[in-house]
């Protein structure tokens, strides 16, 4: 039997091609790490306006930036949220009542901020306020369901940003918008993903147009984290209410098992995927505010990086099939 030997020069040439590429990749990561370590100076002179500070990411970010020495303006929806935040923060932190769905409330907050910051202007706005319900199959929802969520998650972001954008332009500051990895891929029905796609588009538009004035725009894209948006009881209660108001013919299309399976899957997915370390998101938000060279996008969470973002780059036929395999099937399904 004749043994065929592979010329050693082939493997050597492959090695010679691979090593420079590997070197460039390593250099790129090291350079990025070194560059992103740089932080802005004079934090005590920089005002940061944050929405949705009653609980969750916004509440933690307000406290974190306060500890770092920034002058924080925390927008809260409730008096309770304001009072509790004041008790755990320094005198640098100022709370204001804010309803992002009410343009009058947004305008009052902007007028107050303009007086407060004076000639220091506004360094950053962090649009964090958001809601997660109602969500469900599209034919379970009304236009009012869409309006209520889009009013908070998208129109609220736009309204708040535009109300203080002139102050940020003068400071050559930052706009930080909290979107979601589900602004890159739609995995469930309803207006949530729609609203987050809109935040992504608004952020891209701002980044392009405001870059001429030295304003940097970042978009935060969390996966599943244990916040009020992923509270199993709230999500299940919302689904149950949506099911309860459906006409009989739509219920027949889906079948009684569909709602039971959906409620069970909701609890299973949240327990499997929701990360309890909220500081992963808060640290990304802080970097977007304080880094000399912030990123345009921060994808946060192991599920976002390893599941949802890679899935978003797949062909639609493959992506759709994978998502349908792992979702409840309606009784009248033709698939």
UniProtKB/TrEMBL annotation:
Q: Which domain of life is it from?
A: Eukaryota
Matching Pfam families: adh_short
Biological process GO terms, please? steroid metabolic process
What GO terms are given for molecular function? oxidoreductase activity
| Alphabetic keyword roster | Membrane, Oxidoreductase, Transmembrane, Transmembrane helix
Coiled-coil spans in chain: none
TM spans, by residue? 17-34
User: In which family does this protein belong, per the annotation?
Assistant: Belongs to the short-chain dehydrogenases/reductases (SDR) family.
Q: What is this protein called?
A: Dehydrogenase/reductase (SDR family) member 9
